[in-house]
Specification:
The complex is a heterodimer of chains A (714) and B (178).
Chain A: H1 7-10, H2 28-38, E1 49-50, E2 55-57, E3 63-67, H3 76-88, E4 95-99, E5 108-109, E6 116-117, H4 125-152, E7 160-162, E8 165-168, E9 171-174, H5 175-183, E10 231-237, E11 244-249, H6 251-254, E12 259-265, E13 268-273, H7 276-284, E14 287-291, H8 300-313, E15 316-321, E16 330-336, E17 348-353, E18 358-362, H9 367-378, E19 385-389, H10 403-413, E20 419-422, H11 425-430, E21 438-446, E22 452-461, E23 496-503, H12 518-535, H13 540-547, H14 552-565, E24 573-581, E25 584-595, E26 598-609, H15 616-636, E27 641-642, E28 645-646, E29 664-669, H16 685-699
Parallel strand pairs in A: 3-4, 10-20, 18-19, 22-23, 26-29
Antiparallel strand pairs in A: 1-2, 2-3, 5-6, 7-8, 8-9, 10-13, 11-14, 12-13, 15-23, 16-21, 17-18, 17-20, 21-22, 24-25, 25-26, 27-28
Chain B: E1 9-14, E2 17-22, H1 29-36, E3 55-58, E4 61-64, E5 77-79, H2 87-94, H3 104-117, H4 123-129, H5 139-159
Parallel strand pairs in B: 1-5
Antiparallel strand pairs in B: 1-2, 3-4, 3-5
Classes of the chains: A alpha+beta (714), B alpha+beta (178).
Chain lengths: 714, 178
């Protein structure tokens, strides 16, 4: 291992684009053996020499690129390396990827809140690292060129780069040959980025780097971490939100084979055992008394009443366009239930607390926050906390919370060994950070041409930001990009609009669930627009065309989806929907039929305008993924509460769409050189609306409350 | 592993090798594989046989290992994702099937077992066999991946010499060959 360098002096990528050489993190030599197991791609690539925090090149030319964003299926372990490789002109075959530790050099500015974090969420990875990584690649390239120019005694302007080599006339050297000399050079202050029209790699779809490890069992997910001497833990936490642990009898649990310890951790009881199964069985044998506390009396009816009464009392106007909407004769109230993320990998983390350091291995979307929380909970300086981010077995927003890693740290503090905490599926389901239950009322008036002219929308829900976003930030609670996203600033030409929001406080934990507020606002808006079209006696496609008259980019995307969908097949029914979220526009056309009392989903034709595309195949797969999750949730997804306790504990009570029911998803990309938009979440918002609009076309029944469940008597 | 000597030992025929595992008899095969033998490719998803992430092949049949006691697997050919060598894995790469990948070990074990029994499955056959859950919604590509693997297997069979059919039926599969 090479010598340590002073991070504070070297690790900052300053505003001017200056990069730092030879970054080696303190303690990294000890962390590295583990991080190497996270390396993806085939073996090879010796230690290598770092050109900056992101790029290490071996003498064999293998480039190891550090990924500050977590791979949870959305393809960032391929898309982000492409940003570096494009500017650096790497040979893609020589690219390897490894997870980055939680360190400030790997943080990025969030797009909407003025803070810098190492976070994977908000469909922001490509957008958030777009300039940072391209600069890192361009800067490293300039250093390699400079090293070659010096060695050859030629002007650096006469050199070019291609496929991991610097070339000048007949002269040629591989990056592997040049990297040692390059790493000694000063970091260039100003480097030019490529003109997007000259991209060679971006816009192509090389096979995803992480996939070989996902077909042979070698991919390392959070639950797969194995550390020498490790023991296992599981918990039983208070099922009542707002409730507490009163007492527990662990006599029977402690008598079970392999059990090492049983203790209280917050409002939960932890069991530590040699093996997970022993811990689980012992946890089953615990006799625990819970008090429902504030969860007392909290059930479907009382939650519904709280939301309705907030809506009736009226919220606060958060968006206005034009004068006050008037003569509102058309009314409809919509709702969505609490939803669980349900990643197939349950909550898990492995923690080793030692006298002088804490190691956390976790499938986390927020390594930075995990580190900060672990330091706080274990009374350890930040520099002595090491977070090792694994692959995530699905995240969808759930793994952007630190409740499970915090708990693992608290448990590990009590055990003088590394501890792997695994929540059972039941714990995972009943201790979620749910997509909130939301109700939305529309009051509207149509003009003489039947088009929507006046629209008053009111929304009531718990607010995800409550207790999460620190006070002092610019009013995130009511900012249009949060709760009323897409209801405010819709692409439709409406003369007078007002959006109100009423916040409800309940002890049920809520959080960012894939597509966040788009997950319900897509349904609320796009179904109501269909109602307006129906009221006006107009075709939903033509109706939207008219409303989109001042939004050419949205209109073009919508037209592409409609054109590609073609005509409706005999016996099938169609629903359309359009929604912009996370900087991308998605239109979906869904065709279904009703066969012997069952909904048959045939095809979803989607068009997406996500600006400049990094990896088209990932765009297609992410839209497919969002569509299926949106449809699954619209049809089946619902968490209900009794005495403040979630009533769904496993997949038999929270159905996910199986293969048999999944439609073909045909994705078309609008060519664009606009700034890149997000892609991980954007396919979801239109799906539920397209479904319910198609169901209306098929049955005449207007679904205003999700899930669809058995509201249709087919 | 220095366990209590009263804990029984079970002999598994795992990925072609005889392996002993010492565990309580009711330990699900899943946890024997993951915690006792360190084979973590087989995943825990639900613990009640509902999601299929834990699927292995026992006697060539897909089996949800989270609800199968290790004692029930003794002495029978057992294949996990680590021991799977099947055309379907290459097809999965070619179709770029996995996203997060967590359920894919289980999906692959079911898909491989399906193709071994039915070398050219219809969409209906696939829908009937592939009941494992995928939260990323990769189903369409799973379907394409199975069709692609079937085509690759058919091509391979057609290009191999006809005298290979002599050995057909001699060994049902390769899982129990040490």
């Amino acid at each position: 291992m090479t010598a340590l360098h002073n991070v504070s002096r070297r690790d900052v990528l300053r505003g001017g684009g200056a990069l730092v050489l030879g970054l080696v993190l303190p303690g990294f030599s000890r962390v590295q053996p583990f991080d190497e197991t996270l390396s993806l791609g085939s073996a090879g690539g010796a230690e290598g020499v770092s050109l900056n925090a992101w790029i290490r090149i071996g003498s064999d030319g293998v480039a190891t690129l550090r990924m500050a964003a977590a791979e949870m299926g959305q393809g960032v372990f391929t898309a982000l390396p492409m940003l570096l490789a494009e500017e650096l002109d790497l040979d893609w075959e020589q690219v390897r990827v490894e997870g980055a530790p939680a360190r400030s050099v790997y943080a990025r500015w969030l797009l909407h809140i003025p803070i810098k974090l190492q976070i994977t969420g908000g469909s922001e990875s490509v957008r958030g690292y777009w300039t940072q990584l391209r600069l890192a690649g361009a800067s490293a390239r300039a250093m390699l060129v400079q090293a070659a120019a010096r060695a050859w005694d030629v002007p650096r302007e006469s050199c070019r780069t291609e496929q991991g080599r610097v070339l000048c006339g007949d002269l040629s050297a591989s990056y592997g040959e040049l990297v040692a000399a390059a790493s000694e050079l000063p970091v260039p202050r100003n480097v030019a980025l490529k003109d997007p029209t000259t991209f060679r790699l971006l816009g192509t779809s090389p096979p995803r780097i992480d996939l070989p490890s996902k077909v042979d069992g070698s991919g390392l997910f959070g639950i797969d971490v194995q550390v020498d001497g490790m023991v296992h833990a599981t918990v039983r936490a208070c099922p009542h939100f707002g409730g507490r642990l009163v007492s527990f009898d662990d006599t029977a649990a402690r008598a079970q084979a392999g059990v090492l310890d049983v203790f209280e951790v917050g409002e939960a009881v932890a069991v530590v055992a040699r093996h997970f199964w022993q811990a689980k069985k012992a946890a089953d044998a615990l006799e625990i008394r819970w008090a429902p506390g504030r969860g007392e009396g909290l059930n479907q009816e009382t939650i519904g009443a709280a939301l309705s009464s907030a809506l009736e009392k009226g919220g606060r106007p958060v968006f206005r366009h034009g004068a006050e909407p008037h003569d509102l004769s058309l009314e409809a109230t919509y709702s969505v239930p609490y939803a669980e993320h349900a990643p197939i990998e349950p909550m898990t983390a492995t923690v080793h607390v030692q006298r002088d350091r804490v190691d956390v291995w976790a499938p986390t979307q927020v390594p930075h926050m995990v580190r900060d929380r672990a330091a706080l909970l274990a009374h350890m300086p930040l520099s002595q906390v090491f977070v090792h981010t694994t692959l995530l077995g699905g995240g969808f927003g759930r793994k952007s919370f630190t409740d499970f890693t915090d708990q693992a740290v608290l448990i590990a503090k009590r055990v003088d060994k590394p501890v792997k905490l695994i929540w059972t599926r039941e714990e995972t389901f009943t201790h979620g950070k749910y997509r909130p239950r939301v109700i939305c009322s529309h009051k509207a008036a149509l003009g003489e041409d039947g088009l929507l002219t006046d629209w008053h929308v009111s929304v009531a829900s718990q607010n995800i930001c409550d207790g999460i976003v620190p006070p002092g930030f610019p009013d995130p609670e009511f900012a249009p990009y949060t709760v009323v996203e897409g209801l405010a600033e819709a692409p439709y030409s409406i003369e007078r609009q007002r959006v109100d929001y009423a916040k409800v406080r309940l002890p049920i934990p809520v959080g960012w669930w894939r597509a966040v507020h788009g997950s319900h606002n897509g349904f609320f808006r796009e179904c109501f627009v269909d109602e307006c079209a129906h009221e006006a006696g107009q075709d939903p496609v033509n109706y939207r065309r008219a409303l989109l008259r001042s939004s050419p980019r949205h209109a073009a995307c919508f037209e592409l989806a409609v054109a590609e969908a073609g005509s409706i097949a005999e016996g099938q029914h169609r629903g359309v929907a359009l929604f912009e979220s996370f900087g991308s526009i998605v239109a979906e056309v869904l065709d279904l039929s009703i066969e012997q009392g069952e909904i048959q989903l045939h095809r979803v034709t989607a068009a997406v305008d996500c600006g400049l595309v990094v990896h088209p195949d990932t765009v297609r797969s992410q839209i497919m993924s969002g569509v299926v999750m949106g449809l699954s949730n619209a049809l089946y997804g619902e968490v209900t509460f009794q005495a403040g306790a979630a009533q769904q504990s496993n997949f038999h009570q929270y159905k996910l769409m199986p293969l048999r029911e999944a439609p073909v998803v045909d994705v078309h990309i609008v060519p664009s050189l606009e700034q890149p938009g997000g892609i991980g979440e954007v396919g979801l918002p239109p799906a539920s609306a397209a479904l319910c609009n198609a169901l209306f076309a098929a049955t005449g029944v207007r679904i205003r409350s999700l899930p669809v469940g058995n509201q249709l008597s087919l | 592993m220095s366990e209590d000597p009263s804990v029984p030992t079970f002999g598994l025929l795992l990925n072609g090798s005889a392996v002993d595992v010492q565990a309580q008899p009711d330990t699900p095969l899943l946890w024997a594989l993951r915690d006792h033998l360190g084979l973590t490719g087989t995943k825990f998803g639900c613990g009640v046989g509902a999601c299929g992430a834990c699927t292995v092949q026992l006697n060539g049949m897909p089996m949800r290992s989270c609800v199968l006691p290790v004692a029930a697997a003794v002495g029978q050919p057992l294949t996990t994702i680590e021991g799977l060598k099947h055309a379907v894995q290459q097809a999965w790469i070619e179709e770029q099937v996995p996203q997060c990948g967590y359920c894919q070990s289980g999906q692959l074990m079911v898909a491989a077992a399906l193709l071994d029994r039915n070398p050219s499955p219809s969409d209906e056959d696939i829908a009937a066999a592939m009941t494992n859950l995928c939260r990323c919604g990769t189903y369409e590509r799973i379907r394409k991946g199975i069709h692609r693997a079937a085509a690759a297997m058919a091509t391979a069979a057609a290009s191999s010499s006809p005298d290979e059919s002599d050995s057909e039926g001699e060994t049902s599969d390769d899982v129990d060959a040490p």
